[in-house]
Design brief:
Largest sheet: 2 strands, antiparallel
Structural class: mainly alpha
Shape: elongated
Strand content: under 5%
Oligomer: single chain
Amino acid sequence: EIVWLRGRNGRGKTTLLRLLAGLSTPAYGTIALGGHAVQALPPEWRSRLVYLAHVNALKDDLSSLEALRFLASLHGAAPSLADLDGALAALGIASRRDAWVRTLSQGQRRRVALARLALPHPPSVWLLDEPFDALDDLGVQALHRLLAAHSARKFFAILWRDLRLAARRRVDALLPLVFFLAAVSLFPLGVGPEPNTLRTIAPGVVWVCALLATMLSVNQLYAGDLSDGSLEQMLLAPQPAWVVAAAKSTAHWLVNGAPLIVAAPLVGLLFDLSAPALGALVIGLLLGTPTLSLLGGLGAALTVGLRSSGMLLLLIVLPLAMPALIFGAAAVSTVESGLSASGHYSLLGALLILSVMGAPVATAAALRISTE
């Protein structure tokens, strides 16, 4: 999480940060981190907190590299030279690594002080007092990247865990793809070998099967994490709950949606689609299947822990997914007719953008409600 405290000069912002860091003693009450009063934190907890004040804690007669090494050592770290160089490079100050601090501008000194946050395994709690002070545009961008990376660790941890679980549960991971291929291949057998008929029904058949395959796998997206307690731990982590939703939906698409896109050309050949139509099918699935995963994640969050959740999930997600199905199938039909499908691609892209912006937030709220 990132909390931005704002107020006029003299209102106590710095005083509050010093209280949180344990540098000042509250008049009454206790400020605690991990159950320990911040004024008497054990070493293993003290190393998790970093405080950056108005001044940068840099000695004029040290080089930038030496100053950064000293700041890192205060937190019990022993970074290598490569780690130090990488941290300075992340703040755009690598060219001044051997320059004395006295020769640096105020903005460059601020970058050196902030570089401790770019070292491997930085403290988890950052108390930053006007961190953008004296920074130019490049420095501001570098700090924004650090703050974003600080919040992104949870995303990649969940994503990597789900991908590893899918690799170890190959049968479950391949089931949606097998269902997709089996369901699509039945239509040419049932309808007959007439090429014109197959080309006409191909877009709708492929998209309907892709939608059903996605729903087949999304039902258990959060159920396992809820049953073993992992979901509660992820929701209690410092980063916002929408990160959990975004990571889970991304992992679901990589495991279940991406293979459908790879298999799409083979499926198109069964229906005698032309090369341009095959390209339109792949592009449409590339834009549409992430939307299906995001919407499926929302439905899974709303129904997690409920009995007969599969049917309720379909009732929730299918109406929301209809626009993606319509525009995706229409794009292939349009190309097959010799027209441009750019309008359909734009609509699919717009649906994807709306889903990326809204679905993780809505899913996070649904997870909070479902776990109460």
